[in-house]
């Protein structure tokens, strides 16, 4: 979720929190269970917020220790053998987040554990002007006996939003490990809607100090320096079945052998900052394209690559722009009604509410799906792509109104609007596919360390919704990162869900093995 990529994190917007799982640990090892959420329609976001949890951006934080003595004993034994374990929750396969505690007594927060950034931030109790802060837990410095004032201003810009505030220092508990004197950012401004709807409160960066805002020491560095982990290694396991069991786990100080098959293939970190390494060829159905550098990024929901290759992939899987599809759906289903309303001299701002795709706020149409942020939390749904359909409708109204003013015939107007729909780019680059075509789609393989890591269609296609409302979204999105940093692939949760990932800080290498 590092700068400029969080975009896909917001790929979600409305899901159900999975049951939280306990984080147990023992000396030298930290195991953190992750919570997960599946992708929903809103998730196109990028930043990923979305679904995944769009919600990924939305709700977030409820936590969850289990009092079952047998489970506790089992977890403790695993922690002693493998490291400190943090359970994660999965929101729509788009947001994976877990709990931490800051201060004394502890104040609980849910965070994205993000290998694509390096700072820790949570909302501040002094965040008064951003609505997003009121939807999440806020840090109260005055209630912590271990708080130390810093006050240095800070800001972080992500692909889908930005936060700003100031640095403070306090103790931070991750799993059962307490990190002393950790610098972090108290966010006093979170202007993006992405953070308002997210399931998480903040972000805990696990990247290198080289990309740390304010040159602060990342929390992982302090875990190692303070002797809180046995080995300078942490590993991720993401459960891609959002409705089944624990969302995932991070193990600090070790590796859980129950979460992978075979052996890991390791490649050296080639550029510190992100966890960047050289990647070989990318194959589409066995056909070679080109290789370049890549980063393993737990804070990005999808797989991001150069436009030239993503275009080839999406052509092979029959992907079309989500926005174009929504636009054509509006024209096909509501085009005649919209024309009739305009000919009846209905005010353009009221047309989309009149046909039922938007609600009218007094000046213009507003997506009826806004309420779904709340409705989805209690298991309801306002229907697929409601906000997208509203936006497409209002765009079509503008086009049609202009054409009618030029005295064009009905057939010519509808034909022209369909042509314009084809030109509409998806705002975050996501593309939809025909769910019934998965069986005919090719495997996509990434060559890492001389070994091919294959993704099958069911692994790189994200399903949003249920039953007849199900939509399928391509797990690939384009982003052209210029030299010298790029071109670059970002291997996000789609890839890390298929392959257990080890971040070896001591030996500066990254390892991948088939997830179990």
Sequence-ordered SSE layout with sheet pairings:
Elements: E1 10-12, E2 30-38, E3 48-57, H1 69-82, E4 84-92, E5 95-102, E6 107-114, E7 120-123, E8 148-158, E9 161-174, E10 177-189, H2 193-197, E11 202-205, H3 219-225, E12 233-238, E13 248-252, E14 265-268, E15 276-278, E16 282-284, E17 287-288, E18 293-296, E19 303-305, H4 307-316, E20 320-321, H5 322-343, H6 348-354, E21 358-360, E22 365-367, H7 372-375, H8 386-405, H9 410-423, E23 431-433, E24 444-448, E25 451-455, H10 457-460, E26 461-464, E27 471-474, E28 476-478, E29 488-491, H11 493-498, E30 499-504, E31 509-514
Parallel strand pairs: 1-3, 2-4, 6-11, 7-10, 18-29, 19-28
Antiparallel strand pairs: 2-13, 4-5, 4-13, 5-6, 5-9, 7-11, 8-9, 9-10, 12-13, 12-30, 14-31, 15-18, 16-17, 16-24, 19-29, 20-23, 21-22, 23-27, 24-25, 26-27, 30-31
Query: Structural class, from helix and strand content?
Result: alpha+beta
Largest sheet: 14 strands, mixed
Oligomer: single chain
What do the pLDDT scores average to? 78
In DSSP terms (H or I, runs of 4 or more residues), the helix count works out at: 11
Which residues form runs of ≥5 with pLDDT under 50?
A: 2-26, 38-81, 362-385
The second-level CATH architecture of the largest domain is Beta Barrel
Radius of gyration computed on alpha carbons? 23 Å
Please tell me about this protein's structure.
Strands 2, 4, 5, 6, 7, 8, 9, 10, 11, 12, 13, 14, 30 and 31 form a 14-stranded mixed beta sheet that branches. This protein is an alpha+beta fold and 516 residues long. It folds into three domains: 30-59 and 71-238, Beta Barrel (Cathepsin D, subunit A, domain 1); 257-319 and 429-515, Cathepsin D, subunit A, domain 1 (Beta Barrel); 325-359 and 387-421, no CATH class. Strand 30 (499-504) and strand 31 form a beta hairpin.
């Amino acid at each position: 979720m590092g700068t400029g990529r969080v975009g896909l994190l917001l790929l979600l917007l409305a899901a159900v929190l999975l049951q939280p799982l306990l984080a147990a640990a023992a000396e030298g090892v930290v195991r953190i269970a992750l919570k997960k959420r599946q992708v929903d329609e809103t998730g196109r976001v990028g930043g990923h917020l979305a679904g995944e949890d769009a919600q990924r951006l939305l709700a977030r934080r409820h936590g969850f220790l289990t009092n079952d003595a047998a489970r506790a004993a089992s977890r403790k034994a695993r922690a002693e053998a493998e490291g400190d374990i943090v359970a994660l929750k999965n929101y729509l396969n788009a947001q994976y987040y877990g709990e931490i505690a800051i201060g004394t007594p502890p104040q609980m927060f849910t965070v994205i554990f993000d290998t694509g950034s390096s700072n820790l931030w949570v909302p501040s109790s002094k965040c008064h002007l951003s609505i997003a802060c009121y939807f999440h837990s806020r840090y109260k410095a005055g209630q912590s006996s271990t708080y130390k004032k810093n006050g240095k201003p800070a800001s972080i810009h992500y692909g889908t939003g930005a936060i700003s505030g100031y640095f403070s220092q306090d103790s931070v508990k991750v799993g059962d490990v307490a990190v002393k004197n950790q610098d972090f950012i108290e966010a006093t401004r979170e202007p993006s809607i992405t953070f308002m709807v997210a399931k998480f409160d903040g972000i805990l960066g696990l990247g290198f100090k080289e990309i740390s805002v304010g040159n602060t020491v990342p929390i992982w560095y302090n875990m190692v320096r303070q002797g809180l982990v046995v080995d300078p290694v942490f590993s991720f396991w993401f459960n891609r079945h959002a409705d089944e069991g624990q969302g995932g786990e991070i193990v600090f100080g070790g590796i859980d052998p129950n979460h992978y098959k075979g052996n890991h293939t390791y490649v050296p970190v080639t550029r510190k900052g992100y966890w960047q390494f050289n990647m070989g060829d990318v194959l589409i159905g066995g056909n070679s394209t080109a290789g370049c550098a890549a980063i393993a990024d737990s804070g990005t929901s999808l797989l991001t690559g150069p436009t030239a290759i993503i275009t080839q992939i999406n052509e092979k899987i029959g992907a079309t722009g989500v926005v174009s599809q929504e636009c054509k759906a509006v024209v096909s289903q509501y085009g005649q009604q919209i024309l009739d309303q305009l000919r009846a001299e209905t005010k353009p701002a009221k047309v989309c509410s009149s046909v039922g795709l938007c609600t009218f706020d007094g000046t213009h149409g507003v997506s009826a799906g806004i309420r779904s942020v709340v409705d989805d939390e209690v298991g309801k749904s306002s229907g697929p792509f409601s906000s997208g359909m509203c936006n497409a409708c209002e765009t079509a109204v503008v086009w049609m109104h202009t054409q009618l003013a030029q005295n064009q015939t009905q057939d010519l107007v509808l034909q022209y609007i369909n042509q314009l729909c084809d030109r509409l780019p998806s705002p975050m680059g996501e593309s939809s596919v025909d769910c019934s075509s998965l069986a005919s789609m090719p495997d996509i393989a990434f060559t890492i360390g001389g070994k091919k890591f294959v993704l099958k269609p069911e692994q790189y296609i994200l399903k949003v919704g249920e039953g007849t409302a199900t939509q399928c979204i391509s797990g690939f999105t384009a982003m052209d990162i210029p030299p010298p940093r790029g071109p670059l692939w970002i291997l996000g949760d789609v890839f890390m869900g298929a392959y257990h990932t080890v971040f070896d800080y001591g030996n500066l290498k990254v390892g991948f093995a088939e997830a179990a």
